[in-house]
Amino acid sequence: MILHKIFLIFLLRCTGLLSSDEFRTEFVLMRDGKKLAVDFYRSSTIEKLPAILEMTPYGRNLGFTFRGESEFWYRNGYIFVIADTRGTGDSEGDFEFFSEDGDDGFDLIEWIGKQPWSNGKVAMRGSSYSGTNQWYVAARKPKNLFCINPSATLGRPLDLPPYNNAFSLNWAFGWIAKSANLPNNSMKWINPDPSQWLKHRPLYTLDEFVTGRVLPLYRKFLQHPIIDSYWDLLVLKPDNYSQIDIPSLSFTGWFDGTMYGTIMHFKDISKHSPRKNDHFLIVGPYSHGNAPDGGLDFQTGKPIKHLGDLILEDNAFLPGLNMTKEFYDWCLKDGPRPSWKPAKVYITGTNAWREGSYFLTDNLEDKYLYLKSGNGAASIKGDGELDFDCPQYGSDSFEYNPDEPVKSDLSKNVVLPVDMNFYLNRSDFLVYTSQVVKQAFTIFGEVKLELTFSSSVRDTDFVAFLMDVDENNRSIKLGSKETFQLRTRYRYGFDKEVLMEPNKIYNLTIDMHEMGHTFLPGHRVRLAITSSFYPIISANLNTGNSIAFDMGPAIKCSQTIYHGMPSNGLTSRIHFKSNDLNKDCF
Fold first, then answer.
1. How far is CA 214 from CA 187, 208, 240, 394, 537, in A?
2. What single string gives the DSSP state of each residue in 442-475?
3. What is the pLDDT of residues 415-445, one digit of tens each?
4. 365-585 adopts what CATH topology?
5. Other C-beta atoms within 10 Å of 135: how many?
6. What number does CATH give the domain 2-157+230-356?
7. Which of 25, 244, 258, 457 has the fewest beta carbons closer than 10 A?
8. Residue 39: predicted pLDDT
9. 0.85 exceeded by the pTM?
10. Number of helices (H) and strands (E), helices first, in the chain?
């Protein structure tokens, strides 16, 4: 540990992060007697300065944290403080997913306020996990916390890892076993090939099969397959938001997997906070990693122009770090209030920024595109269509085999936004495509897929993709998640499991979250539906048994999507929000 610290100090000096200032590590006592490891960069002068705190589970290093900004903040009159969250890195205690961070953050901020180098004013900085935990800390109302910068944040329970309870294996192993600095994680796995995971039963012990060790957090998630008291601890309610009387600035992106949570927090804090008008949201054409920096590379400061299968325009990028400094200068140094509107959003397609009360007010109209087909919508070669008019009664079917799921990143890495054409020739995809767009139209806000369906089994998955088909016939996937899906046992909510009667007709809604996109003339709207996208989500064995402990064997099933006859509820459609979507658009 001592040698590690000496090397780190040497590295910081060589990179200019230390200069004549003092790098310190402290072990700060929490209210329950546990100690958290904290690094800070103390000015060599006697001047008392405001502090910026990040609480991270990724280790106090230059990798997944904002530690590399230390020199920037010092040069601008701040002290940067970074702490290992409980049970990670050098901090004591057991790691619990967010549930201890509120109290620990309160105690850390109280400690910072008492230090001789602190002027008593603290802000928080972070994204992803270290962005989300800021909301729990702020809800505790530490008196020295003056503002927060929670970017790319998780929202509701079951957003991750069991997104809509179709368990996200890709995220679970990537985060728990590698990214998070937990005591038993490892970069080397004994069975790293996801194609081998399909043969393992049950899901509960897949962690040991893949990594060679038990991952307690992975198993804890699987032990709570519905929203119960475990997940409820992580739900911020209106009373929690009403306690937050400080400003916030949040960044996210249309291709950020945590976009939903970031927008959710913005809506709720703007509604319930005593300072309703002091919250700001930026939504750009960004991914999870580059959203907090306005689309720039945090190491080089240069725009990341190639994002998935798109090349971004020059106007897509913002000086995220300088905007955050302007925000902190207002909150911590009595500088001028930023002259921003509540929300600044970049509309893809037209590639233009808009500012206003987006997500807070809604004067848009509900619009629907109905699913229909003639001879059948199986694969991109079928005649599935999206249309404004509800069709005559009809249906489309496909077979789902859990032992042969659609394999996502086994054959092609999913880096959003991605061209989906690679997948659409499969017979277990239903594909629906609109006529060519004649007049541009913009969708904004929540998008939902309302399905009327039946299945030959008691439980299964439906997975959906919404795409913009461009002039080159690329099917560019829209939305913030690799997939949008619903495990049918949760069609009535995530607080209960209700199995189906085989071959009975049901309705469900797949939430595709917010989108802000313009379909341009010459383009088409495309929807694809299947039942798997492995290992982004675990393959549903279709048995209806416990997700964690199901031993199989997997059951093949027949899936049917119905369209037409809305009076009887037998219709499937996409629900948009738009002011300029009408029949003349096609």
1. 14, 5, 35, 49, 20
2. EEEEEEEEEEEEEESSSS-EEEEEEEEE-TT--E
3. 789 999 999 999 999 999 999 999 999 999 9
4. Jelly Rolls (2.60.120)
5. 27
6. 3.40.50.1820
7. 25
8. 95
9. yes
10. 12, 24
